[in-house]
Amino acid sequence: MSRFLEGQRRRHAPKLDTVLLETVRESVLAGRGPVTPSTVAAAIQASGRLLGTAGALDAAESINAELSGLGPLQQLAQDPLVTDIFVNGPDSVWFDRGRGLERSLLRFDAEHHVRSLASRLVAAGGRRLDDGSPCVDVRLKGGYRVHAVLAPISTAGTLLSIRIRREQVFTLPELRASGMFSEKIEEVLRAIIERRLSFLISGATGSGKTTLLSTLLGLSHPDERLVLIEDAAELNPVHPHVVCLESRHRNLEGEGSLDLAELVRQALRMRPDRLIVGECRGAEVRELLTALNTGHTGGGGTIHANTAESVPARLVALGALAGMNAEAVQLQVSSALDVVIHVARGRTGRQVTSIGMMAQTPQGPEVVPALTLRRDGIEEGPAWPELSSRLTLGLGT
Known about the structure:
Elements: H1 3-8, H2 18-30, H3 37-46, H4 52-68, H5 74-77, E1 84-89, E2 92-96, E3 101-103, H6 111-124, E4 135-140, E5 144-149, E6 159-164, H7 172-177, H8 183-194, E7 199-203, H9 209-217, E8 226-230, E9 242-246, H10 260-267, E10 274-280, H11 284-292, E11 300-304, H12 311-321, H13 326-336, E12 339-346, E13 349-361, E14 364-374, E15 377-380, H14 384-390
Parallel strand pairs: 7-11, 7-12, 8-9, 8-10, 10-11
Antiparallel strand pairs: 1-2, 1-6, 2-3, 4-5, 5-6, 12-13, 13-14, 14-15
Helix pairs in contact: 2-3, 3-4, 10-11, 11-13, 12-13
């Protein structure tokens, strides 16, 4: 049985000795060095408690999680398939392993334990969580992105949402084997990158946009320079030349913020061969569309949208945040973007459900379906002849 499943089944596992925890906490924090597994183990041994070998190992693991990890949630994070953890209350812990949300057997003793963990995690990210700042988003070492909300903003008490960045990047064949797309879709995706078409990957939260984008970027030619702009670093393509710029929140004094729009402007001075915005969610869309219209082909990013066809309207809405009117955005979109790849999460997992081409119509830019996933296979749409021609693919099914 895996450590994850073993931990999930420990409904009646003994609680962490609070006296030992406080003793070890005081000992390691009194030292000048960082909190490490070795310093925790030494402090446990120095406490004089007779725990035995197995007991000492369990205590060291639990205390390490309490002092520098995710506390009781650490055992969930140890499962390599878990991408998200949600705490909706002391007795409501959920996780996602790629098949939709599942309820955990983990429980917190009380609401103040959840708040204490949330406050510690936020503090580790250099920010504060209190009544004056009840909603906070931070990124921690280890690839954790933590969002916390306090009561009374949350009517259910302290809420925690933790997204885990995994170092493993899947190959296209691995994603195809998992059921994300067919062999024909894989061929098209490879050709989109090879032919340097500008693209957006659309979909809902947790649909696999970032996973697919990381994999596709790894297909870029080794001689290309990839500049990635993200709100929180999640992309990790397997490529020899990657530069990542990450936005910065305001500090405790309310200064020092650096948004995505400014980072895109800075990235244009770094001679990117591919300019990628991890997630288009605000005024940075103006800079991205401008870049894609001025010779920076092959770039793109992800965007939240219900369908591929709704992407143009979504871009118009984001452009309004940058002070652009609908007509200006539509003119930019029609010449900046070539392809929209839509992903969705269903009962069978994450799937590429459609690939469409951006086309200019009298009503403005529209995404015309090229390939659409149906129950009985892949259906070719009106834009497939043009897309296959641009990708130099055959028209066979």
